[in-house]
Specification:
About 35% of the residues lie in helices and about 25% in strands. It has about 240 residues and is of the alpha/beta class. The protein has two domains: about 1-80 and about 160-235, 3-Layer(aba) Sandwich (Rossmann fold), CATH 3.40.50.300; about 85-155. A six-stranded mixed β-sheet has the order 6-7-8-3-9-10, with helices on one face. It has a four-stranded antiparallel β-sheet with strand order 2-1-4-5. It starts with 5 loop residues before the first strand and ends with a helix. The structure holds adenosine-5'-triphosphate. Keywords: ATP-binding, Cell membrane, Membrane, Nucleotide-binding, Transport.
């Protein structure tokens, strides 16, 4: 069997007296789309930074595609694509040039036809490929980010609030892209408050509270209203 894309086992992390993560365990197999519902301060950013190897845990372990992050974070990071809330690409370069540049950084030298195909698959229309990214909307920058992830053949995609500030069309396009990526075996972990998109795309939902996953909900069998009630109750705790 394939190694899980992500395996977090009883991870703890403190900042001085403050416990940010308190025994967080989470395993993601290839193709799973996990939505992390995280009220402010619950430990979302700490979780993402630990997976990326920018922080070290005080206890527990994290593996990406079977490799310990503690062993060689640069190596495990090469299997990960991280899309922050605002995808950072070079404004003076075009979408195509950004994709070429970030692919080269990941030692992937792709010809223009392949780069353009990846941009099209990520939903960036051909007439935008050669325009300066400075004029791109948030949704367009995100599409370039997804194309970069696909060019790098990332096995694990981390997204932080991917739909905040997107119009409904862009958000729905993003759901389609995430579904397509998951069908290709990419495991996706997205921190979000967007219950509507969760219903659309997530295969699992977990509520992060006080540094651990307090409960999991099956998005397929849970009504939207129930999902919302659970989340609101969690926010009010
Ligand atoms: N560098 C740090 N120094 C001290 N405390 C920290 C540090 N980073 C995080 N914390 C604390 O750890 C807890 C979890 O923080 P984290 O940033 O992971 O939460 P979050 O869920 O991302 O919150 P938000 O959504 O508000 O950014 C919080 O109580 C926070 O104050």
């Amino acid at each position: 069997m394939m190694k899980p894309a992500l395996q977090m086992d009883k991870v703890t992390r403190r900042f001085g007296e403050r416990v940010a993560l308190n025994g967080l365990s989470l395993t993601l197999q290839a193709g799973e789309v996990y939505a992390l519902l995280a009220p402010n301060g619950a430990g979302k950013t700490t979780t993402l930074n630990l997976i990326l190897g920018f922080l070290q845990p005080d206890g527990g372990s994290i593996h990406v595609c079977g490799e310990p992050v503690a062993g060689d974070a640069a190596r495990t990071r090469s299997a990960i694509a991280y899309l922050p809330e605002q995808v950072a690409i070079y404004p003076e370069l075009s979408g195509l040039e950004n994709l070429r540049y970030f692919s080269l950084l990941a030692s992937k030298e792709l010809d223009d036809a392949t780069l353009r195909r990846l941009l099209l698959e990520a939903g960036l229309r051909a007439d935008a490929h050669d325009r300066h990214a400075r004029n791109y909307s948030k949704g367009m920058r995100q599409k370039v980010g997804i194309a970069i992830a696909m060019a790098r053949e990332a096995r694990l995609l981390l997204l932080d609030e991917p739909t905040s500030g997107l119009d409904p069309l862009a958000a729905s396009e993003l759901s389609g892209l995430l579904r397509a990526a998951s069908q290709r075996g990419v495991a996706i972990l997205m921190a979000t408050h967007d219950l509507y998109r969760i219903k659309e795309v997530a295969t699992r939902v977990g509520v992060l509270h006080a540094g651990r996953i307090e409960r999991e909900i099956d998005p397929q069998t849970t009504e939207h209203a129930t999902l919302e009630q659970v989340y609101i109750a969690e926010l009010a705790r």
